[in-house]
């Protein structure tokens, strides 16, 4: 059944070559359409040869695509991004903690890669940085852009509400940088915008998850987070940790940015202001006393003893 192929692909993912990961990603995301595929059509969709598809399936233990189709016959698509957190397969607190640890470990491992160093250098050298994210991960891009603004001038979040992403595509240059963030299921805008940015020769950074097989076809600047099918939602804590480390690395490379942070704080104080803590020895303002209708003061009930 379909669960068998899922287990095979997931358990052996790290041993796959780049071409094999492309095939595996397509199978995971399009398992219900496999009965209508041929080795040639499947290879064309992931940009590999039919021979590579056949060899990959044989390595998984199938005689060919026909045998995989036979296994899938009569089964419903198994890949569901979200499952009910209260369902029978909900992760226990211990399992959830282990998932968090695996995600954070993977993030810190990324900081030792050449890709990480190249991306940090790109962000530091860029004359402007545009950040865009999509769907339920939209808040991640907004947070990254907001925090990166403290250390990197001319950083902005592009919401695409103009229907053209003009600020990204028309105002960026070969000295700029565009950061796109999305996780399964991917927004249509995610790939369309990535392709357009790459076509225009604008430096592109993609932050996504491991099944996004096409990301490396468009740019060498890719950071991929592992996914966990047992979680009801993506591991957003891992993504937030990645952004925190990325901002820290950019800040370190750019040198002392406290002057900019201080100037930003002063501007916020001028325009918005902050709630000041009471001075030493000063009593905080008392809470207003609740009143009954007609303006009489309502007496508080004595707290129960014992």
From TrEMBL:
GO terms for biological process: carbohydrate derivative metabolic process. One of its GO terms (molecular function) is carbohydrate derivative binding. InterPro entries: Homeodomain-like_sf (IPR009057), HTH_RpiR (IPR000281), RpiR-like (IPR047640), SIS_dom (IPR001347), SIS_dom_sf (IPR046348), WH-like_DNA-bd_sf (IPR036388). It holds the Pfam family HTH_6. Residues 276-306 are annotated as: Disordered. Residues 297-306 have a biased composition (Basic residues). Gene3D superfamilies: Glucose-6-phosphate isomerase like protein, domain 1, Winged helix-like DNA-binding domain superfamily/Winged helix DNA-binding domain. Residues 3-79 form the HTH rpiR-type domain. This is RpiR family transcriptional regulator. It comes from Luteibacter rhizovicinus DSM 16549.
């Amino acid at each position: 059944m379909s669960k068998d192929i899922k287990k095979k692909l997931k358990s052996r993912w790290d041993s796959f070559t780049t071409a094999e990961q492309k095939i595996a990603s397509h199978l995971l995301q399009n398992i219900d359409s496999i009965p209508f595929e041929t080795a040639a059509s499947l290879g064309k969709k992931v940009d590999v040869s039919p021979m590579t598809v056949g060899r990959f399936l044989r390595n998984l233990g199938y005689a060919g695509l026909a045998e995989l189709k036979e296994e899938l016959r009569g089964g419903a698509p198994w890949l569901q991004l979200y499952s009910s957190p209260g369902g029978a397969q909900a992760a226990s607190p211990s399992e959830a903690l282990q998932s968090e640890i695996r995600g954070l470990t993977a993030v810190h491992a990324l900081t030792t890669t050449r890709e990480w160093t190249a991306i940090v250098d790109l962000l530091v050298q860029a004359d402007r940085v545009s950040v865009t994210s999509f769907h339920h991960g939209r808040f991640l891009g907004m947070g990254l852009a907001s925090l990166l603004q403290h250390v990197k001038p001319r950083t902005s979040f592009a919401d695409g509400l103009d229907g053209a992403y003009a600020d990204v595509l028309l105002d960026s240059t070969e000295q700029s940088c565009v950061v796109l963030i999305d996780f399964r299921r991917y927004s249509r805008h995610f790939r369309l915008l990535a392709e357009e940015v790459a076509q225009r020769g604008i430096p592109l950074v993609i932050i996504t998850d491991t099944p996004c097989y096409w990301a490396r076809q468009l740019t060498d600047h890719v950071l991929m987070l592992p996914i966990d099918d047992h979680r009801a939602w993506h591991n957003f804590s891992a993504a937030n940790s990645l952004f925190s480390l990325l901002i820290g690395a950019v800040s370190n490379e750019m040198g002392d940015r406290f002057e900019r942070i201080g100037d930003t704080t002063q501007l916020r104080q001028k325009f918005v202001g902050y709630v000041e803590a009471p001075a030493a020895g000063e009593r905080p303002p008392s809470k207003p006393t609740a009143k009954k209708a007609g303006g009489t003061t309502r007496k508080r009930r004595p707290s129960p003893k014992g």
